[in-house]
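re: ur question from yesterday

yeah so i grabbed the chain u mentioned. its 147 aa long if i counted rite. heres the sequnce exactly as i have it in my notes:
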Amino acid sequence: MRNESAKREMSAKRRVRGGMPGFGTLASELDKLEARVLFAVAPLPPVVSITQVTGEAWEAAPSTHPGVLRLTRTGSTATALTVTLGIQGTAVAGTNYKLTGPNGNIVVFNGLAQVTIPIGAASADITIVPLEDNTANGPLTVQVIVA
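ran it thru and got these structure tokens back, copy pasting raw so excuse formatting
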């Protein structure tokens, strides 16, 4: 009798540990589903900030003094990142100044410009180059924001 009781107890322990028939398969399928969901989560988009590197830019014959802004991004640098900028102010692009970046001249059209932070780089500099126009101007402004 004692032997019979021990067998029933052992059988009950196996059921508790092993669970219901097929439960191990269900748990395995749930683990696979959970893994698929985890891999489907996209990384957060990079955050881009802009800072002033040099204070002012000016034109003064015979030379000019450019201003420099720096775009800095967070996250992976494994791919290039194109950033759209809003450009405004009292100075006129192409008349009073031009913008240059890592890939040369930056075109300003309808108050917008695009700059690409290259692969492997966490930042890119934008240079505001005053253009000598032989005209006496008051102070002019160029405001650049990440759009």
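noticed a couple things. The helical segments are 2-18, 23-40. also Confidence is low (pLDDT under 50) at residues 8-17.
anyway ttyl
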